[in-house]
Amino acid sequence: MILLSFDTEEFDVPREHGVDYDTLKEGMEVSKHGTNSILNVLKEQNVHATFFCTANFAEQAPDVMKRIMDEGHEVAAHGCDHWQPKADDVINSKQRLETVLHALGYEDYKIEGYRQPRMFPVSDEMIEREGYLYNSSLNPAFIPGRYMHLSEPRTPFWKKVAGGMQNEGKGVLEIPASVTPYFRFPLFWLALHNLPMWLYKYWCKWTWKHDGHFVTYFHPWEFFSLKEHPELKMPFIIKNHSGAALAERLGELIEMFKDEGAHFITYREYTTSNVNNSQIQ
Predict the structure, then answer these.
(1) What one-character DSSP code corresponds to residue 148?
(2) Cβ neighbours of 252 (radius 10 Å)
(3) Helices 62-70 & 89-103, crossing angle to 10 degrees?
(4) CA dihedral angle for residue 106, residue 67, residue 253, residue 183, rounded to 10 degrees
(5) Is 121 helix (H, G, I), strand (E, B) or coil?
(6) Which of 95, 85, 83, 97 is CA-nearest to residue 20?
C-alpha cells in the first residue's frame, strides 16, 4: 500500500531565511498554485492521497479545499498557523477545518488524522481525547536535529494512553514517514528533489517491499517555480527540481508503483483497515 500525503500549508519558508514575507497573502498564492499542480498529477494518475491542511490554508482557499474533496481525497489536520504552532491547535484546527468543509457541502465530514507542523512533538493524550484515529507526526530518520528518532519504530504502531477508547480500544495509530530499512535514510520531499531519480525509486521500492507499505509527504510550495524567485532566498536543495520538474518526478514515482501493482490508499483508509491487524503493535 502506498500512502501519499501533502502538508498543505501557507508558504512560510522564506521567513526561516530572514525574508520579510506575508504568508497569508503571497504565501497562500504559492501554496494554492502548488496544490492545484499536485491535484492535476493525482487526477491524471487516478490515485488518491491525504492532504494535511492548516486551518489558515483551508479558510483562505475554500475553492482548493472543495477540489480536494470533490476529487475523492482525504483532508486531515495540520495545525492552525504553520509558522506559530500552539498546543491547542490539535483542538482548534479540527474544528476550523470541519467548519470549512461543512460550509462547502460536506456536512458529515469528520477530521480523523493529525500531523504537527514540522513534525514537532504533539500530546498523545490530546490527540486521543479529541477523537483522532491516527497521528502522523514522526519521521524516524537518521538526520541530526528534529528528525533524529533512532529509537522510534520505523513502521506504524498503536499508541494507547490511559482511558483511551479509539480504534476499538487500541488507541491512536501512529503512522511514521517511511525511511529505508537498516540505515534509515529519509524518503520524504527533499529526497525526491535531490537524489538521482533511479536511486530514489529503487530505495522507495525496496522500502515498500520490505515493510509492505510506503508512507511519504511533500508540500504544495515545492511545486512552485522557486528557481525563478531568488528574492525568496531558498537553498539549492529546496529549489532543485522544484515546480514543474517536481510534478514530473511525482508522476514518475506514482507510475513506478503502479507498474509494480501497488495500491494507493488514504491514511484514513489505512487506519480503519488495520484496526483488527495484529501485526501492527
Answers:
(1) B
(2) 13
(3) 80
(4) -50
(5) coil
(6) 83
What is the pLDDT at residue 124?
Answer: 86
Give the residue from 33, 51, 17 showing the smallest Cα distance to 225.
Answer: 33
Residue 108 has pLDDT above 70, yes or no: yes
Q: Which position has the grid cell 510550495?
A: 221
pLDDT in tens, 230-263: 999 999 999 999 999 999 999 999 999 999 999 9
Sign of CA dihedral 224, 225, 230, 233: positive
Q: Which residues contact 87 (CB under 8 A, 6 or more apart)?
A: 123, 126
Which pLDDT value is given to residue 51?
Answer: 98
Q: How many other CB atoms sit within 10 Å of the CB of residue 240?
A: 16
Written as nine digits, the cell of 64 is: 482548493
Task: Report the number of secondary-structure helices (H) and strands (E) in the chain.
Answer: 12, 8
Segment holding 250, helix H or strand E = helix 244-259
Q: What does the alpha-carbon distance between residue 38 and residue 50 come to, in Å, rounded to a whole number? A: 12
Q: What is the pLDDT, as a whole number, of residue 120?
A: 85
CA distance 76 to 268: 9
Residue 118's pLDDT is what? 86
